[in-house]
Write a structure and sequence with these properties.
The chain has helices at residues 7-19, 72-84, and strands at residues 25-26, 37-47, 53-66, 90-94, 98-102, 105-119. The protein is of the alpha+beta class. It has a single domain (7-119), classed as STM4215-like (2-Layer Sandwich).
Length: 124
């Protein structure tokens, strides 16, 4: 019997597959990273007017490197260009760079929010 992945897990894995190649890609939230890498988050969901369909906003978290002297800002720009050139769905927005902490280490990061639809809980 085939294993059926939950819809949001499947969305994260599809996005991770599209972004594989330049940096390590984590298709699920993690509590520690070794930058540079990309982390895929489920993002927010809004119900649509019919059935079990939702607009979902998966997030690509670009993690460039530790917040310290070095090339992290340039890596972050490279990550943004890489992700934007490979998105399988619509782009919602690109957030400004920010400090993000994983495992008590602060990294330079940026959120890239995408948009697609997903059916949750409506089928076998």
């Amino acid at each position: 019997m085939a294993v059926r992945l939950p819809a949001l897990t499947l969305i994260r894995h599809q996005l991770a597959d599209a972004l594989t190649g330049m940096w390590p890609v984590h298709p699920s939230p993690v509590d520690a990273v070794d930058g540079p890498c990309l982390v895929i988050l489920s993002g927010t969901r809004d119900p649509m007017a019919f059935g079990c369909n939702y607009t979902t906003r998966p997030v690509v978290l670009c993690v460039a490197g530790r917040v310290e002297p070095g090339p992290a800002a340039e890596v972050l720009d490279d990550q943004e260009e890489w992700v934007l050139s490979r998105l399988p769905w619509a782009l919602e927005r690109v957030d400004a760079e920010m400090d993000m902490t994983f495992g008590n280490v602060t990294y330079l990061a940026r959120r890239i929010v995408t948009r697609t639809t997903v059916t949750i809980g409506g089928g076998a």
